[in-house]
Automatic annotation (TrEMBL):
PROSITE patterns: RT_POL
Domain of life: Eukaryota
Pfam family membership, one: HTH_animal
Protein name: Reverse transcriptase domain-containing protein
UniProt-listed InterPro entries: DNA/RNA_pol_sf (IPR043502), HTH_animal (IPR058912), RT_dom (IPR000477)
Domain Reverse transcriptase: 1-125
PANTHER family hit by this protein: REVERSE TRANSCRIPTASE, REVERSE TRANSCRIPTASE DOMAIN-CONTAINING PROTEIN
Source organism: Ooceraea biroi
């Protein structure tokens, strides 16, 4: 019943979803993963040869097999269900992209490098934007993690230079960039464990405040001295319109009040 009665409202009109799991439902990803696990086990079981490597993330698959076996694998997977149809991409010059990596055939070994999609704009939180510094530091940390953890050591130096260029284009000062890139690299190499240390009582006293540049730092310092941890939330949602159509209370199917009569 839940999976076959999905409807939604758009521009004051109601629509019914006629196929598939409910859009936006927390159940849908679980069902999708169950289907993909069954598809994987079923289809691989039908093959009369072994796949040397088979890696799947949701519906993206990386595999290694002989060229003459490609059409066989494609046919078996596409026969699973008419609405689940796969395409394939071959390596080019010993390179092929998979998720956020480029897989490179290096002799008899496979190595990886950090990959950016063709649509990658390089835009992140601008240094001059009204965000707390820890958000900007997180941008650097995440970029360093990708540059190092997704790539073979031979690419680390060039990838870090790419990170510096991306951050410079987003107006980050070079001293700020170098400081937090160095901290990120030390953390990855295990020589800097300070970021992983937290006061065991910190989470017992926690407040979440809107970030206001002129005052938030002062308030945080004073509260930290009292043993209170401060997290920030942005206030941009006040500036953005509500995209979803409003539904009148009179027609929703939720129970707001259930009166109780005593005999």
């Amino acid at each position: 019943m839940v999976l076959s009665s999905t409807c939604f409202k758009f521009n004051d009109k109601f629509y019914e979803q006629v196929y598939g799991s409910p859009m936006g439902s927390p159940l849908s990803p679980v069902l999708a993963d169950l289907v993909m696990e069954d598809l994987e086990a079923h289809c691989i079981g039908l093959l009369d040869f072994n796949l040397r490597i088979f890696v799947r993330y949701v519906d993206d698959v990386f595999t290694v097999l002989s060229v003459d076996k490609i059409q066989t694998v494609l046919r078996v997977f596409n026969d699973y269900h008419p609405r689940l149809q796969f395409t394939f991409e071959l390596e080019k010059d010993n390179h092929i992209n998979f998720l956020d990596t480029t897989v490179i055939r290096d002799g008899n070994a496979l190595i990886t490098n950090w990959a950016r999609k063709a649509t990658f704009s390089g835009r992140y939180i601008n240094y001059h934007s009204n965000h707390p510094d820890n958000h900007k530091i997180s941008v650097i940390t995440n970029l360093v993690d990708r540059a190092i953890l997704l790539s073979d050591p031979r690419f680390h130096v060039s990838n870090i230079e790419i990170v510096r260029k991306i951050l410079t284009n987003n107006c980050y000062p070079l001293t700020f960039i170098n400081k937090h890139i160095s901290k990120g690299i030390r953390r990855i190499k295990g020589s800097d464990n300070t970021e992983g240390k937290h006061d065991q009582h910190a989470n017992n006293n926690l407040v979440i405040l809107p970030y206001i540049k002129q005052y938030s730092g002062i308030i945080k310092t004073k509260l930290n001295r009292l043993g209170i941890k401060v997290l920030y939330k942005t206030v941009t949602y006040h500036l953005l319109p509500l995209e979803k159509d409003q539904i009148m209370v009179e027609i929703v199917d939720h129970i707001f009040v259930l009166p109780v009569w005593s005999k």
